[in-house]
Amino acid sequence: MGTDNGNNLDLPSADELVSHDRSLTWSGTRVPGSAPPRTAAEPPTAGEWSEPGRPDAENAGPEGGPIRDAPATPDAAGSASAAPPYPPAGLRPRSPFGHTGDGERRAEPAPDQVPPPYAPPPAGGGAPVPLFPPPASGQNGDQGAGLDAQGPGSVPGDRGSRMFMLGEAPLPAPAVPPALAAPSTPSAPPSAPPSAPSVPLVPENSADLTSERLIRSRTGMPASPWRRAVYRLTGGKINLGESPKDQRRRVLRAAAATHLRGHRRIAVMCIKGGVGKTTTSFVLGSVLADLRGDRVIAVDANTDQGTLAGRMRTETAKTIQDLLRDPGVRGYFDVRGYTSQAPSRLEVLASNEDPAITDAFSASDYRKVTGILERFYSICISDCGTGILHDVIRGEGGVLDSTDQLIVVSTTSINGAKKAAETMDWLEENGYKDLVRNSISVINMVGTRGHNQIDMPQMMAHFRSRSRAVVQVPVDDHLSTDDRIDLELLAPATRDAYLELAALVGGEFSKQPTR
Questions:
Q1: Mean pLDDT of 145-168
Q2: Residue of 374, 348, 360 lying closest to 303 (CA atoms)
Q3: Helix (H, G, I), strand (E, B) or coil at 224
Q4: DSSP tag of 266
Q5: Where is the signal peptide (predicted)?
Q6: 271 near 388, Cβ under 8 Å?
Q7: Helices (H), 87-158
Q8: Quick check: helix, strand or coil at residue 274?
Q9: Of 110, 176, 189, 424, which is most buried, counting CB atoms within 10 Å of its CB?
Q10: Are 282 and 306 in contact, with CB atoms under 8 Å apart?
Q11: Is 408 in contact with 439 (CB distance < 8 Å)?
Q12: What's the pLDDT at 349?
């Protein structure tokens, strides 16, 4: 500040301008809509000098009058020279923008009179460095053009800097249509141009517009008791979703419900009685029938007075022998008259309780029965007895000749485990080695009192080495009565064990050829 520009005025700072006139911006221009500029006052006459910070009354001379200009002194030519351009020491000229005695403000300076921003001189002296240095010649296009033509009082810098210093709004950026605007990403630079919208390579058709695509997925109520309680207490706002156990059950249910083409036959056997073959056949068939949409039937192939029908409420007294003696069986409803259906939709074809009649049941009879059933049922489970050497088991067209999957049942007792292992030995020695390798071992009554001394890891290791999977069924009071079985009364651990067994059986349906 304080440079001699021909007016001999000490220009005020931007803060002083704003503090005296609120209608002025920091750049020195008047806010749009404010009062019009007032007429500029005359420059201070000679003698209107005052000390900084003192009123005019205190700047009086020795006689009480104001201090006047110093008298003119003759120069070397003998003529009187003009008054010095600067006030005496300690005095400054009265600012033309300050308040006058009558309370009226003086006019603000023109935009070209605003002083340039102050820049401290560099170290070691020299000229101050401008805050907005002009661009080098030949750069920035038209931004540096015409700077010298604007006069020495113009604001230095490029066009955007001059517009900011003069209080003018910068030119708005060209608007981009919303459809072409790309979402900003942290990795993309701020000045990156908007990316073009993605265009599908292949046009879609009506088959692509599915309900799963249009409807938002909704998470149902959790199955876990405490998660369901949280869901209800919060009015559905907090849904913790499925627990790990529920997720595993969902996967097992999907495996058990694997799509099946054709007919599949499953045999449940062991040469020892009382290990739980009938219970395994009924519960496995009930789980499959409950999860699947096709028909599932369990056949009592026990030649020693089978008790499969005793696990449910029977609807008929007819047996498998009655079905064989009926030549008029043509459709499903003809067969349905010989079966009993459980609440799970599992149908059971019972055997005769007379030992003389059941002993006469041969492999050819079994072949005839399964030939009828495979036309109307997708899955047939055969509950075999202890007589593994009987013709219905090992004869031509018997159980082993037409079995797709084998389930060997054992208990946690030493005798039960050894008899199950001997069953596998006999099958491997008689040409059913592949059937044994693909079999499932079921260990019943895990945790039975009195059998806690059994080394379960060793038993599991033995059967796992001989079959593709091992399932442990824990002790369940509902199953220990050998009475009617209700799936709703089973313990959660027991239901999970049979669900795992059903998933292992259903997972093989897609791997086996269609019968």
A1: 53
A2: 360
A3: coil
A4: E
A5: none
A6: yes
A7: none
A8: coil
A9: 424
A10: no
A11: yes
A12: 95
Query: How many angstroms separate the CA atoms of 503 and 507, rounded?
Result: 6
Query: Which residue type, as a one-letter code, is found at position 448?
Result: T
Q: Do 451 and 478 meet the contact criterion of CB atoms below 8 Å apart?
A: no
Q: Among 373, 29, 348, which Cα is nearest to 169's?
A: 29
How many beta carbons lie within 10 A of that of residue 421, not counting itself?
16
Q: Smallest Cα–Cα separation from 298: which of 365, 380, 402? A: 380
**Which structure tokens are listed for 25?**
């911006």
The Cα 376–Cα 290 span in angstroms is: 17
Most confident of 156-170, 197-211, 239-253: 239-253
Report how far residue 134's alpha carbon sits from residue 178's, in angstroms, rounded to the nearest whole number: 37
Mean of the pLDDT values across residues 360-367? 88
* Residues 322 and 354 sit within 8 Å (Cβ to Cβ): no
Q: Is residue 338 a contact partner of residue 322, using CB atoms and an 8 Å limit?
A: yes
Assess if residue 315 is contained within a domain.
yes
**Tally of domains in the chain:** 1
Burial environment of residue 401 by CB neighbours within 10 A (0 to 12, 13 to 18, 19 or more): middle
Has residue 199 been placed in a domain?
Answer: no
Q: Would 394 be classed as within a structural domain?
A: yes
CA distance 76 to 71: 16
Contact (CB, 8 A) for 10 and 91: no
Task: Read off the pLDDT band of 73 (50, 70, 90).
Answer: very low
In the block, tokens 């900003």 appear at 184
Confidence at residue 108, expressed as pLDDT on a 0 to 100 scale: 53
387 — pLDDT class (breaks 50, 70, 90): confident
Q: Using an 8 Å Cβ cutoff, are 15 and 27 in contact?
A: no
Question: Residue 445: which CATH number?
Answer: 3.40.50.300
- 340 is in which domain, residue-wise? 252-507
Parallel, antiparallel, or unpaired for β 49-50 and 92-93?
antiparallel
**Is the residue at 38 inside a domain?**
no
pLDDT score of 492 more than 70: yes
Highest mean pLDDT among 46-55, 91-100, 119-128: 119-128
Phi and psi torsions of 469, nearest 5° = -160, 155
